[in-house]
Design goal:
- The chain is α/β, with parallel strands linked by helices.
- It has helices at about 10-25, 35-50, 55-65, 70-80, 120-125, 135-150, 165-170, 175-185, 200-205, 225-235, 240-250, 250-255, 275-290, 300-310, and strands spanning about 80-85, 100-105, 110-115, 155-160, 190-200, 215, 220-225, 265.
- Strands 1, 2, 3, 4, 5, 6, 7 and 8 form an 8-stranded mixed sheet that branches.
């Protein structure tokens, strides 16, 4: 059964009617319902187009968090051949919230790193809902430095509510690990493309996303804090979550206009969760297009351009 969001109730009702009709036809010989099902499918598609054409920032946040959206494992399976995971930070442990390794993307060797939220209760707990501890970021740093040493381009897939805020993570230097992650991103001499595929939450996202080119799915979000956290900080009220989502400018269109991301990657009608394979192929094409011109640039030029871009981000004109 498909998971429906609150604002998708009209779609759920229509698709529920389609399933009921199809079940009736399967149980009754000689009943032809093709015409009626066709009409309902057309209505459902029209309803999806209508709803998804005017999503609010908070609704886009819900879509970005949809449990059926593709996860890191699905992206790797669909885009990377001969993927070989590399574990551990060589200092403390292997954090399952961040996965990385070597593989071949469309004929070229790459280092792929990203957050994995996990599926089902057991999977989500094992991967800590995609919220990395310091050892996760130190693993990412180790893999990025390895890629840099051997001249291998880096691709990162960002999907996290944020870095894990637990006491154990703070005790092991969470802020320092994130800061070192950002510094490592900005220091790489190889082509580097980051993709915001779900939630891009706070420093937990930026630590592996300070890239030459930042791609973002149409219905993904990218923000300094979650709307819930922002509402709690600014208004001390969970009732202000929708206002917080609007104020944070979390959507791809806002972030493209502000120069935070480079490219909006279109999603299938109704979001990536409705057609994961199509969404993954589209992302692969966008990564290939973004990475191609980077190979023509010298290492020093890549690094200087990347550092300048992020240092100037948010600068007030005339200041």
């Amino acid at each position: 059964m498909r998971n429906y969001l609150d604002f998708e109730k009209p779609i759920a009702e229509l698709e529920g009617s389609i399933r009921e009709l199809e079940a009736t036809a399967n149980g009754s010989s000689g009943v032809n319902i093709a015409e009626e099902v066709g009409k309902l499918r057309a209505k459902a598609e029209q309803q999806i187009k209508l709803i998804y054409s005017k999503l609010t920032p908070w609704q886009k946040t819900q879509v970005a968090r949809h449990p059926d959206r593709p996860h890191f494992g699905e992206y790797v399976a669909g885009l990377v051949e001969d993927f070989t995971p590399l574990a551990g930070d060589r200092a403390f442990a292997d954090d399952k919230a961040i996965i990385g390794g070597l593989g071949r993307f469309r004929g070229r060797s790459v280092m792929v790193i990203g957050q994995e939220k996990g599926r089902g209760t057991e999977g989500r707990v094992r991967h800590n809902f995609g919220m990395a501890r310091p050892e996760g970021y130190r693993k990412a740093i180790r893999l990025m430095e390895m890629a840099d040493r051997f001249g291998i381009p880096v691709i990162t897939l960002v999907d996290t509510p944020g870095a894990y805020p637990g006491i154990d993570a703070e005790a092991r230097g969470q802020a320092e690990a994130i800061a070192r992650g950002i510094d490592c991103c900005l220091s790489l001499k190889v082509p580097f493309v980051a993709c915001i595929v779900g939630e891009g939450g706070s420093g937990g996202a930026v630590a592996i996303a300070a890239a030459d080119r930042v791609l973002m799915y149409e219905h993904a979000i990218y923000s300094v804090a979650s709307p819930e956290a922002c509402a709690a900080i600014l208004w001390s009220s969970p009732d202000k979550t929708q206002e917080a989502a609007e104020a944070l400018k979390v959507t791809s269109k806002d972030l493209e206009r502000l120069g935070v991301i480079d490219t909006i990657v279109p999603e299938p009608l109704g979001g990536a969760h409705r057609a994961p394979e199509e969404a993954i192929r589209t992302l692969g094409d966008a990564i290939e297009a973004a990475m191609a011109p980077l190979f023509a640039m010298e290492a020093g030029q890549l690094r200087e351009q990347r550092r300048r871009r992020f240092l100037e981000m948010g600068r007030v004109i005339g200041a």
